[in-house]
Structure formats: C-alpha cells, structure tokens
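Structure first, sequence second, as always.
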C-alpha cells in the first residue's frame, strides 16, 4: 500500500509553528533556521494544495484548514511516539507526573497503579494530590485530572468518568436498614451527617428523592475530601454521601456499607485537562491516558 504522506520533518515543522504561532520559535525548538522552517511549510502547503498559515509581520496564524489539520497531526505524532515506546521501550522513560484530587489518587489510582507499572516498568511515576478543583495548575504536571463542571479557563477538558453518589454508613448499622430507604431517617437519627465542602446540599436532595422530610439532626461534620469522610464513617462518626466508585473501593478495606440502591445524580465529573497551547504529549502521557480510560471503562 502506498501512503500519500508528507515527510515527517514537514509535519513536525507545521506542528511546532502552529503551537508557537511563529516560524522563528519553531526553528529554535527544532534546531533549524527560520528560513528552513518556512521552506518546509511552503512545501507542505504545495503538496496538500491548501494554505495552512496566514503570514504576518512578526507571527503566523493558522488558516481554517490549518486549524482543522492540527489536532489530527498532533494525535498522529503522539500515537507514533507512544507506540514506539510501548513496543521497543527505548531505555528508561521520562518521569510521568500526574496530579489528581486526593480521593481519586487514594481510592482509584493507588489501588490500580501497579497494573500500569507491570505494563510499563520503564516509566517512573510521580503522583500529586489536590484538594481544590480550582488550584493553579503546575506547568511541570504532565496529566492534570480534576473533578468539577468541565470548565477551566485556558484548558480543554476531556470527561473521563461520570459517576453518581451513594449514601455510606458504618457496616454495623446496615442490618437496621434491610435495604429499605424509608428507614434512612432512623439510621442517621443518632449520627452526624458528614458533608463534603461544596456539596452540602446533597443530604437535602437525598431526602427529597426519597420523599422523606428533611432531617433535623443537630450534629454535622464538614470535610474537604471524600477519603476523610469515608474514614469518619468507618470509625462511627456519622454517615456520608460520596461518589459510588470511591465508596466501593473504600469498602474493600473499611467497615462500610451502601445499604440503599438508589443513585444520587451529580452534575460534576472527573476530567483530564489539557492546556490550549500544549506541546506534543510525550509518549508516557499518551500511554497513561489510554490505560486510565481502559481502567475506568472496566468499572
């Protein structure tokens, strides 16, 4: 089969020029002259029959065709790089830095990360935990996972997983419920209601869904992450509402129960953030993203 492909150096010149909006900056990155970059871009445009850039005095801007071409070019380069590393290793990979919400790190990534290490032992990993969804991104982070609405200025957001919330109680109390949601008031009557900061209305919504009167329970606790909430529940401090995936994982090692079958819908989800002006993703990032999506689909 004959592939109608332009030379790889032309493609790299196009991607770097698009990212920097400058032939000169692309030339510095690729150790070429600006004239060489301009010549490669012109050759690429002639081969495909479309202008890719609007030339300006001190910069360049993608045409409509160039803007459409760029995402496919980036994905192809990233896949080629990732596949090369996946099949041939090419020595020790560069350190992969992943930041994510604290509870996601502890209750989703930590129990599964050994599987990734078994597949790619040459890739060192650094995991960083976040508490607040609006924390400033660190430029050294390769993969930035956030929980929220999907809107972060300066970033595109790819939804990774949509989950729902569940009520979690101490396992010793589960027998009192008999999976009868109408008994929720009785179960939590002598417990504190544990609230996750930012989601204090979840308990009210839960009682509304069940058609029960809003509980007048004087005691309450507020925490800033689900891991803390689940630990409090396990130690008899109250009842909490958390993401189902977090509750299922925590219940493997803590005395927790989810005695009610009804889900509590939640608008927020986990997203993978990508800066609008990103560089080509290094192969370790592409491999981890692909593995992460596979793990989420298997839940």
């Amino acid at each position: 089969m004959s592939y109608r492909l332009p030379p790889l150096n032309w493609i790299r010149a196009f991607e770097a020029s698009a990212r920097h909006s400058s032939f000169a900056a692309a030339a510095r990155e690729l150790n070429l002259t600006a004239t060489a970059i301009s010549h490669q871009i012109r050759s690429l445009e002639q081969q495909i029959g479309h202008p890719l850039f609007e030339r300006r005095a001190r910069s360049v801007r993608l045409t409509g065709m160039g803007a459409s071409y760029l995402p496919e070019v980036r994905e192809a380069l990233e896949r080629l790089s990732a596949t090369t590393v996946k099949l041939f290793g090419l020595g020790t990979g560069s350190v992969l830095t992943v930041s994510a919400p604290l509870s996601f790190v502890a209750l989703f990534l930590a129990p599964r990360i050994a599987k990734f290490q078994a597949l790619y032992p040459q890739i060192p990993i650094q995991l960083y935990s976040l508490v607040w969804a609006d924390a400033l991104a660190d430029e050294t982070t390769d993969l930035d996972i956030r929980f929220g609405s999907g809107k972060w200025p300066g970033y595109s957001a790819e939804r990774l997983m949509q989950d729902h919330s569940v009520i979690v109680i101490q396992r010793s109390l589960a027998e009192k419920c008999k999976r009868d949601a109408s008994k929720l008031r009785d179960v939590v009557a002598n417990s504190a209601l544990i609230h996750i900061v930012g989601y204090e209305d979840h308990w009210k919504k839960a009682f509304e869904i069940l058609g029960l009167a809003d509980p007048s329970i004087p005691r309450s606790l507020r925490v800033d992450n689900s891991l803390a909430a689940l630990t409090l529940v396990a130690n008899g401090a109250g009842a909490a509402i958390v993401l189902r995936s977090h509750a299922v994982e925590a219940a493997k090692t803590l005395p927790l129960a989810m005695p009610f079958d009804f889900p509590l819908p939640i608008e927020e989800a986990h997203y993978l953030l990508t800066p609008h002006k990103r560089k080509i993703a290094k192969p370790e990032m592409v491999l981890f993203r692909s593995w992460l999506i596979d793990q989420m689909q298997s839940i």
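Margin note: The chain has twelve helices and twelve strands.
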